[in-house]
Amino acid sequence: MKRRDKESGFAMLLVFLMAACIAITLYFEVPRVAFQAERQRELLLVDRGNQFKRAIQVFVTDQTNNPRIAIRHLSTSWRVLTTIAICAIGTWIP
Fold it and tell me: Which of 22, 32, 48, 78 has the highest local Cβ count within 10 Å?
């Protein structure tokens, strides 16, 4: 019969301890990463909204004949513009 060493099994215990430390670290880091990803999506939406605002300003200033028609047209298609802006990211659900 083989004689067992008093220190046998400590390597396996060390591996489990390291795995537990990595799991705990990931448990605390995953929400931060998810929050940062959400923040990036929100910043992208804000940027696209500013681009749409600038495009509307340019469009309205170009309409020298009758700007009320241009404003009426833009107010009816505002839902379309916001849908395009949000769907580009893929998070909008109608």
Answer: 48
The tokens describing 68, both together, are: 């009320």
* Length of the chain (residues): 94
Tokens encoding 80: 């379309």
pTM: 0.48
> Scanning the structure block, which residue is given the tokens 């909204």?
49
- Chain CA centroid to CA 78, Å: 23
Question: pLDDT, tens digit, for every residue of 41-81?
Answer: 899 888 888 888 888 777 777 665 555 665 666 666 666 66
Give residues with Cβ within 8 angstroms of 94, minimum separation 6: 83
Positive/negative CA dihedral, 26, 28, 32, 37:
positive
